[in-house]
Amino acid sequence: MIRPIEVRDAENFLELCKKIDESGFMLFEPGERQTTVEQQSKSIERMLFEPNKMIFVAETENKLVGFLAVIGGDVKRNRHSANVVLGVLEDYQGQGIATKLFNKAFEWAKEVGISRLGLTVMKGNDKAFNLYRKMGFVLEGERVQSLRVGGEFVNEYYLYKLL
């Protein structure tokens, strides 16, 4: 089931994020996320009052297995534009969950006036890159040495989709 996140999801969502961080492909290093459940609850609560911000969660058998966050701009000039962050637990990848999350987010974004979505992916994360291309994202460019992973510099691809 794909649904908007709720404040009551804070603890499970935080655990989901920590597990996904272990993939090595997220911004946070494994074990680096220090958010408390209380902080996560407040963050979700604040976000739910923003008209162009949303987190959709994928739930299977009362367990959160994935999410897609859409974070829209805060000023008039960029409110139409949003950044996307996707995470799905490895055991649940390849089952269409990410596709369902994206489709729900696309539908919602159009309803709230978001017409441009952008995201980044580490160079070398071919699985994610191919998924994003399948979902209609277009390669916009490459940011050189934008991250340092395991002591090594890593480039990121920037992709976008116009709705």
TrEMBL record:
One of its GO terms (molecular function) is acyltransferase activity, transferring groups other than amino-acyl groups. Gene3D superfamilies: 3.40.630.30. Transmembrane segments: none annotated. InterPro entries: Acyl_CoA_acyltransferase, GNAT_dom. It holds the Pfam family Acetyltransf_1. Residues 1-163 form the N-acetyltransferase domain. SUPFAM superfamilies: Acyl-CoA N-acyltransferases (Nat) (SSF55729). This is Acetyltransferase (GNAT family). It comes from Geobacillus kaustophilus (strain HTA426).
